[in-house]
Write a structure and sequence with these properties.
The structure is a homodimer. The first copy, chain A, is of the alpha/beta class. Chain A has helices spanning 17-25, 39-47, 67-75, 110-114, 117-121, 134-144, 155-161, 208-218, 251-261; strands at residues 6-11, 31-36, 53-60, 64-65, 79-87, 91-94, 105-108, 127-130, 149-153, 164-167, 177-184, 195-201, 223-230, 238-245, 266-273.
Chain lengths: 281, 281
Amino acid sequence: MTEDTMQVACFGQPGSYSDQAMQAWFRGRSVEASYCDHFEEVTAAVAEGRARYGVVPIENSSTGGITEVYDLIRKYRCAVVGEKCIPIEHHLLGLPGAAIEDIHTVYSHPQGFAQSREFFRQHPAWEKIPYFSTSKSAERVAADGRKDEAAVAGRLAAELYGLQVLAENIQTNRSNFTRFFIIAPKMETDEKADRITLIIAVPHRPGALYHVLGYFFYGGMNMTHLESRPMEGHPFEYFFHIDVTGRLDDPSNAHTLRGLESMCSYFRILGNYASDRGGQP
Amino acid sequence: MTEDTMQVACFGQPGSYSDQAMQAWFRGRSVEASYCDHFEEVTAAVAEGRARYGVVPIENSSTGGITEVYDLIRKYRCAVVGEKCIPIEHHLLGLPGAAIEDIHTVYSHPQGFAQSREFFRQHPAWEKIPYFSTSKSAERVAADGRKDEAAVAGRLAAELYGLQVLAENIQTNRSNFTRFFIIAPKMETDEKADRITLIIAVPHRPGALYHVLGYFFYGGMNMTHLESRPMEGHPFEYFFHIDVTGRLDDPSNAHTLRGLESMCSYFRILGNYASDRGGQP
C-alpha cells in the first residue's frame, strides 16, 4: 500500500452493486477495498478510523430508504461526502447448463427479492432464502455447484462467479436505481457540492415540522427527500433525515440553516456534496 | 360459523404479537382467524373479500415503519378501520432443559433480530436465521427438538409451543411498541374516531410538501406521523403516508382536507378511527 492508497470499507462483495458504486465514485484514485457483510461493519470501520471512506446503499427507487443504514449513520455520527446512483438490473443466475425448470431454491439479499416481487409471484414453489448480499448469493450458488439453486444478482456478479443468466432483468420496476452514500468520519466538500444532508428532530407540538420546512421554502432550498426514523426510547417521536439543495458556504443557505436550527430539538449537518442522478433525466 | 362470526386474516401465527393485537381489538366479538405467513396474503384476502378484516403490523417504535405493509395497503387500496399498540417484549426461547451456552442457531423474524441488536452483539458466533415470524420461529424450534436452537419471540409463543425462556426482555429498547392496523375493504368509523390516515403525493415543485402541511397546521389538525414511500417507475418521487388528528364528519376538518386535496397530485383517505397508545402516557 502506497501512501496515496485509500482504505475503503464497502458493503457487499466484489461484483456487488455497492462495489460498482465504489468503483464509479473513486474512479482514477487508488483504493484498497475491504468488503463487509453487514452495514454496521462499514459505519464502525469509518467511525473508528479503520477506513478513510465507506460505501453503503441508502435508498432504492422502488423499495425506498434502507432504514437500518439511516440509523447507523446517525448512531456512528458519520459524515456524508458523496453519493452515487447506480441502475439496478437484477438477473436470475444459475450454474452453466442449468435451466429455469431445474430451480428449487433461490438466494438473494431481501431487497433483491423485494425488487423482483412480480417475477417471483410466477414461481410460488421456489424457496426464497434471504442472504447477505446479491453478489454473495451468486458466490454461494457457484460454490454449492447445485443445478437447482439460483441467485438474484447483477451481471458483474455473474461474470465474477462464472454463472449463467437464466432470466434477464427480473426486477419489477425497469427504472430502478439505488442511491449509495460515500461516508467518512468528517465532512468534505468541494466546488461541485450542491446538496446538503441533515438530521433534525422537532419539539412535540402542532405545526413544528411545517414551520421547519418553511425555512427551506423561504430560503430557496428545495427539499428532495424526507425520511422519518423512530427515536428509540421515545415511542412515536421521530428524527427526520432531510436532503435539500444548497451549499454551506452560500451565506443565504447558512442563514436559513441557522434559523432552522433554532426551531429544532436535534440538528446535525451530515454533509454537503455533489448530487448524482445516475444518468437519469 | 354463525352469521355473526367474522373472518379475520391475521399476519403471523397463533401466539404472535399480531395475534395479540387481533385478540385485543376484537375482544368480545366472534372471530374466525386465518393466519398468514406473508403480509400480502392479508391485504389480498381483505381486498378480494375472503376476509372481512385484516391485522398487520404497520410501525414499530424502535425500528420504524414496516415499509412493505405501507406499500401493500396502498396497492390493494385497503381501508384502515382501527389501530392497536402492543408492547413488544422479546425473549430468547429454547427447549425445556436447554441452557444459553447450548445455543448455536437462532430463528426470528428480521424485526425480532433488529429490535434485539444489542443482545446479539454479545453473541456474535450465533447463526441468526431470518424466519417468517417470531411465533413461527418458536414453533420451529419446538418442532426441531434441538437444544442448540433458539427463537426470539414473545411469552405467548413460549406458552403455546412449550418453550423455556433462556433470556428475558432481550429487546434493545425497553419501551418498545408495535402499532397494528386493522384493515378492511371499506372505511368504517364511529363516535370514538379521532385519527385520520391518508396518502398524498405532491407536484414536483419547491415547497409543495410545506404548503400541504400548512393546511393541517392552520386547520388545527396535528400530524402524528409522516412516512415517505417511493413511487415505482418515478425514481426519487414519493408518496407520503400521513396520520393526523381529526374527524371526517367535523366540518372544519372536512374543509381543510378539501383544500389540501386541491394541492395534491394523489390524495386518498384510508380511514378515520380511534387512536390507541397501548397504555403509554
